[in-house]
Amino acid sequence: MMADRLVCRECHRVQDASNEEVCDACGSSSLTEDWAGYVVIAHPESSDIAKEMEVTEPGSYALKVR
Predict the structure, then answer these.
(1) CA 38, 41, 42, 44: dihedral to nearest 10 degrees?
(2) How many Cβ atoms from other residues are within 10 Å of residue 60's Cβ?
(3) For residues 6 and 20, is the Cβ–Cβ distance under 8 A?
(4) Could you please report the per-residue DSSP string of 32-58?
(5) What is the value of pTM for the model shown?
(6) How far is CA 35 from CA 39, 43, 44, 46, in A?
């Protein structure tokens, strides 16, 4: 279930269940369960949403992180 996943407060990347201590993308240890919204970005170089979120790597991201 997506609600059980952790999200990085720094880059908003949804974390894989295998690593719950640090963010796979940016290395931050600031992870939270308090997030909302979900977007999968496949081609960040051509995505307006990726540009708005300042995402440069493909992956799953939370829209709102508290």
Answers:
(1) 180
(2) 16
(3) yes
(4) ES-EEEEEEES-GGG-HHHHHHT--S-
(5) 0.86
(6) 12, 23, 21, 25
25-46 confidence digits (pLDDT tens): 999 999 999 999 999 999 999 9
Buried b (16+ CB within 10 A) or exposed e, 18-56: eeeeebebeeeeebeeebeeebebeebeeeeebeebebe
Q: Which two three-digit tokens encode residue 4? A: 């059980």
The two tokens of residue 23 are: 């963010």
